[in-house]
UniProtKB/TrEMBL annotation:
Residues 34-392 form the Sulfatase N-terminal domain. Its EC number is 3.1.6.1. It catalyses: an aryl sulfate + H2O = a phenol + sulfate + H(+). The conversion to 3-oxoalanine (also known as C-formylglycine, FGly), of a serine or cysteine residue in prokaryotes and of a cysteine residue in eukaryotes, is critical for catalytic activity. Gene3D superfamilies: Alkaline Phosphatase, subunit A. This is Arylsulfatase. It is an enzyme of class 3 (hydrolase). InterPro entries: Alkaline_phosphatase_core_sf, Arylsulfatase, Sulfatase_CS, Sulfatase_N. GO terms for biological process: phenol-containing compound metabolic process. It comes from Echria macrotheca. Belongs to the sulfatase family. The modification 3-oxoalanine (Cys) is found at residue 78. Residues 1-19 form the signal peptide.
Length: 595
């Protein structure tokens, strides 16, 4: 079932029994500012139709809220994506680019100074009570949770490594208490109890102060059993030996469901011919036994999501009984997407293809149109500005994103003015989370550093990327929605023209756009064409294709390239930078270096 079918099913309505439980207590008067509940799942896909299997999410969110159909992660892995989401900054500006030290994880978040400078701290500064339960960041562990404690929350109950992904042996750490193991209990059920408790606590003060409640279940991430390394996460070789990936584990009551479901057989699922670039293009086709196992992996994922679906239903039942439903925004998204068999890849993420970066984002709340599908481009770095805007907090000048319009009229107006691009970036390894099927096969692929962009307009829909080995990719998703034909690969036939102009003209514009975006800061990240054309006469790709700019883009600009592959953001490996090597277009045939 395609995404459009899921949305149509939800909008048509789903008959589900309403809870007739008694009210939980006195209903507080609505405060002037709204409350926010933010649900952040882990590794949830959009392109394998995971929302099809969650009837409560369809009932409460898709049918009654707005589905943002072009929402993207900017980094397709857990910790960098989450830090970008909670700070409003691209990963190249947070320098949290991995899940573990030295380039990422909770210790890197702390060393970069974000414990005093991220969303919950900003919310508290304007009088919002803040609560959070579930996974916050990778490498937030039973050894370092107090070094220091996470700032910014009135109440918190965090999942901790090395037990974050152990579905039946999770460890949570509440406020400043010591960690508590929940061996034998399903982690999402433990989380639901904590989330409902925080909601009960927040409601006590909701008449006077709005609240923010973050809920981050680990589902449908793989189950991971990690050896205890005495607090030292070790190097990559140690991690590969110490970490065992298996399919996610559903609650027992859901283990029998969806017995006949399989990964949707889209054209890029285990294709006969190789696709992609770099290491992806070298992958062998998966055997029937491999595909059968991966179908089981998929079924386990949608089974684990049933607990999340029940959690969503429980939240809405409580909001309704508390009388807060009309003054509460509920956001639902995930940190990154997921692939199983796409481009012949084993279960995992970390790539720039649609399966890994194109995500669900659903919002329900005051002024949000029910059943609407919004096709403006939105990203995770837009989330923090959006939430601050909702509670009347000032928007920070150093945000790399901009607030997402939520009302129908605002969304329609934004279609004419909003940015049409997404900055995608990644450093380090890609991990296979399924079985290893060949002797000597490694779970980790180290050469997975790249910069990319997605750009979507009325007349075009492109993905353009440059890998750290300087291999290039370009897909025209209008004609190739499954990204099977890399137009820049020598084995593929590139068109002579595209968008009515020579093919090379489009490539030069996309490369210059990426040249700006790969190191952009602040407003330049949302208005990159203005960095190239300060007079404001170019607002989008269509404008940039004007013939008078051919020499500027085709001959003058330097190209995106890498000097070498690195596992983290090391500036002298990243090739030319726009701030020092780029050019700005000026009228009168004059070319000035950007300084």
């Amino acid at each position: 079932m395609r995404l459009s079918s899921i949305i149509n099913l939800a909008v048509a309505g789903i008959s589900l029994a309403q809870s007739d439980q008694k009210p939980l207590g006195p209903q507080p008067k609505s405060n002037k500012r709204p409350n926010i509940i933010f649900i952040l799942t882990d590794d949830q896909d959009l392109h394998m139709d995971s929302l099809k299997y969650t009837p409560f999410i369809q009932k409460h969110l898709i049918k009654e809220g707005t589905f943002f159909s072009r929402h993207y992660a900017t980094t397709a892995v857990c910790c960098p994506s989450r830090v970008s989401l909670w700070t409003g900054k691209q990963a190249h500006n947070t320098n949290v680019t991995d899940v573990n030290p030295p380039y990422g994880g909770y210790p890197k978040f702390i060393s970069q100074g974000f414990n005093d400078n991220f969303l919950p701290v900003w919310l508290q500064q304007v009088g919002v009570d803040t609560y959070y339960t579930g996974k916050l960041f990778n490498a937030h562990t039973v050894w370092n949770y107090h070094s220091p404690f996470v700032n910014g929350f009135n109440g918190s109950d965090f999942l901790l490594d090395p037990y974050t992904y152990s579905y039946l042996n999770s460890t949570y750490q509440r406020n400043h208490d010591e960690p508590v193991s929940h061996e034998g209990k399903h982690t999402v059920d433990v989380l639901a109890s904590k989330a409902f408790g925080f909601l009960d606590e927040a409601v006590k003060h909701a008449a006077d102060r709005p609240f923010f409640l973050g809920i981050a279940p680990v589902a449908p991430h793989s189950n991971v059993e990690a050896a205890t390394l005495d607090g030292d996460l070790g190097d990559i070789g140690d991690i590969e030996k110490a970490v065992v990936f298996t399919p996610p584990v559903p609650a027992e009551r859901h283990a029998h469901l969806f017995a006949d479901e399989k990964v949707p057989r889209h054209p890029n699922f285990n294709p006969e011919s190789p696709s992609g670039a770099n290491w992806v293009r070298k992958l062998p086709r998966q055997s029937p036994e491999n595909v059968e196992y991966n179908d089981h992996f998929f079924r386990q994922r949608i089974r684990t999501l049933q607990s999340v679906d029940e959690l969503v239903d429980g939240l809405f039942s409580r909001l309704e009984r508390y009388g807060l439903l009309d003054n509460t925004y509920v956001f639902y998204t995930t940190d990154n997407g997921y692939h199983i068999g796409h481009h012949r890849m084993q279960p995992g993420k970390e790539c720039g293809y649609e399966e890994d970066i194109h995500l669900p984002l659903i919002v329900r709340g005051p002024g949000v149109e029910a059943g609407k599908v919004a096709d403006i481009v939105t990203t995770h770095v837009d989330i923090a500005p959006t939430l601050l805007d909702l509670v009347g907090a000032p928007i920070r000048a150093d945000f790399d994103g901009e607030a997402i319009p939520l009302g129908a009229e605002e969304i329609d107006a934004a279609a004419e003015t909003r940015h049409e691009h997404v900055t995608v970036e990644y450093w380090g390894f890609a991990a296979s989370e399924g079985k290893l099927w060949r002797k000597g096969e490694s779970r980790l692929t180290l050469n997975n550093t790249y910069k990319a962009l997605r750009i979507i307009g009325e007349e075009y829909n492109f993905y353009y990327s440059v890998w750290c080995n300087n291999e290039h990719e370009l897909y025209d998703l209008k004609t190739d929605p499954y990204q099977l034909h890399n137009l820049l690969h020598p084995d593929e036939a590139a068109p002579t023209e595209i968008l009515g102009v020579p093919f090379a003209k489009v490539v030069s514009r996309l490369d210059s756009l990426l040249f700006v975006l790969k190191s952009c800061k602040g407003q330049t990240c949302t208005r990159p064409w203005q960095a190239l054309h300060p007079t404001g006469n170019v607002q989008n790709l269509k404008d940039a294709l004007a013939q008078r700019f051919d020499h500027f883009y085709g001959e003058q600009q330097k190209r995106v390239s890498y000097d070498r592959c690195e596992l983290g953001y090391i500036l002298d490996a990243e090739g030319p930078q726009f701030e020092t090597d780029g050019l700005v277009y000026r009228h009168g045939a004059r070319w000035d270096e950007w300084v």
